[in-house]
Amino acid sequence: MKNEIKIFLASPRGFCAGVERAIEIVNKTLLKYGKPVYVRHEIVHNKQVVEDLKTRGAIFVEEISEIEDLTRPVIFSAHGVPKTVPEEAKLKNLSYIDATCPLVSKVHRESEQLFKNGFDIILIGHRGHPEVIGTMGQLPKGSVKLVETSENVLSLKTEDFTKPLAYITQTTLSVDDTFQIIKLLKNKFPNIKGPLKEDICYATTNRQSAVKQIAPNCDMFFVIGSTNSSNSVRLVEVAKKAGCLNSQLIHFGKDLPIEQIKRSKIIGISSGASAPEQLVQTLINEIKKNCTVSIEEIIVAEEKVVFKLPKELN
Q1: Which of 35, 84, 146, 209 sits at a 20 to 30 Å CA gap from 265?
Q2: Could you tell me the pLDDT band of residue 266, with boundaries at 50, 70 and 90?
Q3: Which among 69, 20, 73, 7 has a CA at the least distance from the CA of 49?
Q4: Which residues on adjacent β-strands are paired with residue 131?
Q5: Is 131 assigned a catalytic role?
Q6: Could you tell me which CATH number the domain at 4-15+202-299 has?
Q7: Mean pLDDT of 234-240
Q8: Catalytic residue among 24, 88, 131, 303
Q9: Band (252; pLDDT cuts 50, 70, 90)
Q10: CATH T-level topology, domain 17-98
C-alpha cells in the first residue's frame, strides 16, 4: 500500500513578471526578425527555458565578441549588463534589445543618481553574479564597493569612505540576511542613505514569505530551480532557516530522493522565479507514482505585476 503524503504548495512560486517579460522578448524578437537571434548570457537562469529557446532559434553567447553574424539582433539578459556591453554592440553596428528586468534597471538608475550626487556606494550582493556585474558596471571602475556578508561589513573602515555613504542591493537576496547586513551598516555608519523603496524585488520577497510559512511543518522541502539561479538557492536557505533542514534544490538532471520522499508525511514545494510551472507539476506527478498525495496550496500574496515590452517589439 502506498504511503500518504501531504504536499504544501507555495504560492506565489515560479515565473515573476521580469522573467515572463524576458522570455516573451526572445519569442517576439524571433517572430519579428526570424531566426537566429543572439542572446548574451542565459536570458534567465533556467536550463529548460534556455534549451527550449535554443530549439526556437536563439543562440546563447557569453560575450558580444562571440557573435558570428553581425546582421542578427542580440538580446541582453534579464540580469542586466554593464554599460560597456551596449557600447560594444553600437561599435559593431549590432541592433540590440535590452531584456533587463525593470526592477534591476531601477537599481541601475539609483546607482547613477547616487554617483552623480557625490555618494560613495556600497552594493550588497553576490560577487560574480551577472546582476552584480551589471550594476557595478553602470559606473566607473572602483565607484562601488561590494559587500557580501556581515563579516564584510565589520571589516569596513570609516576612512575607506571620503564622501557621504549610500547602499543599494541585488534584487534576489535573502530578505532576512540582507536585513541583518543593513542593520550592521546603519550601526556602523548612522548617516548611510538607503533606497526610497527597497531593492529586493517583490517576487523574491513573496516567494521567501511563502516558504517561511510552509517549511516549519515539513519533513522535506523541494525548491525547483537551477543551481546558478540566485533566488532559487536563497529559497533553499530560507526553508532550512525556517526549520526544514532537509531542504534541497531540484535542478535539471538531479535524481529525486524517492526513498526519503516515501518516508515523509509532509513535503513542501516551491520554485524559483525563473522555473517553469510545468517542472512543479512533473515533480508532483513523480511523487504521485510512489505515494498517495493530497495537495494544499498556501497563498501568501497575489501577484498582478506586468512589465511592458521594449518599444522595438510593440
Answers
A1: 209
A2: very high
A3: 20
A4: none
A5: yes
A6: 3.40.1010.20
A7: 98
A8: 131
A9: confident
A10: Rossmann fold (3.40.50)
